[in-house]
Amino acid sequence: MTHPSTDPADALFAPVEQSRSSQRIADVIRRTILDGRFRPGEQLPPERTLAERFGVTRNTVREALRNLEQLRLVAIRHGSGVTVQDYLATAGVELVSALLLPEHGTSAELFDDLLEARRVVGQAMCHHAIERVRRGAQPELAAAVTAFAAAATGDRPDVAALLSLDFDVQNQLIRAGGNRVFVLLHNSLRHVYERAAARFSPLMAEPRAVAAAYQDLLAALHAGDREAARSAITLVYDKTSPKRRTRR
User: Fold this and answer.
1) What is the three-class DSSP state of 79?
2) 3-state class of 83 per DSSP?
3) Where does the pLDDT of residue 1 fall: very low under 50, low under 70, confident under 90, or very high at 90 and above?
4) Which residues lie below 8 Å from residue 108, measured CB to CB, with a gap of 6+?
5) Residue-level pLDDT at 141
6) What are 88-97's contacts with CB under 8 Å, separation 24+?
7) Distance between CA atoms of 105 and 112, rounded to whole angstroms?
8) Average predicted confidence (pLDDT) for the chain
9) CATH classification for the domain delimited by 107-239, as one of 1.10.10.10, 3.10.105.10, 3.30.2320.30, 1.20.120.530
10) Which of 63, 87, 123, 186 could cysteine-pair with 22, CB 3.0–4.6 Å?
11) Structural contact between residues 231 and 219, judged by C-beta atoms closer than 8 angstroms
12) CATH level 3 topology of 9-91
């Protein structure tokens, strides 16, 4: 006679389709961790147990766990099993994309955090670049500003396209500043926002005003007027940063 399992993990981990099975397994386990069903310091079931429950080989489970280790959601220690990490202490900005997935019921507070991070971090990187960029023409930046301005002039601008072009402009500015780490950090923020572009439509409520500010930025850089360039970027963020809706 077969007795029903009393292990709560049995209800969490069920067989998966074989196509891209390691990624599917990683997604399932990631959800259980981010939703708090496995807490920091707790151990996941052994590889053999997970393989049986998911209906896959141990190698497939091992690959899924390595993916989670790269996100710093778990720590794998041979002989000690797989331990859940406190992701707020270990993970990086790449995890934000996972938190934005619908199954996690993304809160208004998280979106406010993202908008706040964009304003504080993005503006600081742009101001840093302005201090380092050389006076004169900036052809790559000029092309990005022209593309944004063209997209902003229509009666019904494409918000997702404008968000992407906005990142293009700032990416070119930050690249002109010469700090590669800032460029890579900006790219990471971009990937996060583009995963949920529709939710960030308030950022582009005044696209023509933003386009005008970017054109002022370009003119100021050409003239070597750093103060005017900083003012232009500040105006961009004033026009694209809705007030925080939640309180801490």
Assistant:
1) coil
2) strand
3) very low
4) 245, 246
5) 95
6) 92/188, 93/185, 93/188, 93/189, 93/192, 94/188, 94/191, 95/71, 96/192, 97/191, 97/192, 97/195
7) 14
8) 86
9) 1.20.120.530
10) 63
11) no
12) Arc Repressor Mutant, subunit A (1.10.10)
